Amino acid sequence: MGESDIAGATSRYAGFWGVYQRQDDTTVKLWRVGAGEDEDTLLDQRSFNTEVFWLKNQTRAFSLGNFMVYDALLALARARPGVAPPGMQILSGQRRADPAEWDSAAYIARQAWLMTDLIVRRVMGRNVRWRIGMFPSVRQQAVVSEAMVLQPPKGRFFADPFVYTRDEHPYIFFEDYDFNSRKGTIAVATYEDGAFRLLGTALNLPYHLSFPYIFEYEGVTYMVPETCGNRSIELWKCTEFPLKWELDMTLMTDVSAVDTIIFKRGEYWWLLTNIDRTDGQNHCDELFAFFADSPRSTQWTPHACNPIVRNPMRARNAGIVVSPAGEVIRCAQYQGFCHYGKGVSLNRIEELSPSTYVETDGEIHYASFLRKRHASMHHWHHQGGHTVFDFAYME
Question: Cβ neighbours of residue 173 under 8 Å, at least 6 residues apart?
Answer without folding.
Answer: 161, 162, 163, 164, 186, 187, 188, 202, 212, 214, 223, 242
